[in-house]
Design goal:
alpha+beta; 72 residues; 2 strands
């Protein structure tokens, strides 16, 4: 599931998924699809620290290394 809840281009991620994971003591599975390289990467679990801005930056940085079918 995409954290932003849409398949449209977004400029920043919404923070609800991190808040929910923190409140429920859950980890977030970071997984990316690189269409150009034909790679699906089920990479790692991320445990929210409670610092929402830093957590969002970390997740955003993780996804910045992947490219979709239609570059936006």
């Amino acid at each position: 599931m995409a954290p932003e809840g849409t398949r449209k281009k977004v400029l920043k991620l919404k923070s609800g998924f991190i808040r929910i994971a923190k409140q429920t003591n859950s980890k977030i599975m970071l997984a990316g699809i690189d269409f150009q390289k034909k790679i699906v990467n089920l990479d790692r679990f991320f445990t929210p620290t409670g610092n929402l801005n830093n957590d969002l930056r970390y997740v955003q940085n993780y996804f910045s290394h992947y490219s979709g079918k239609r570059a936006q």
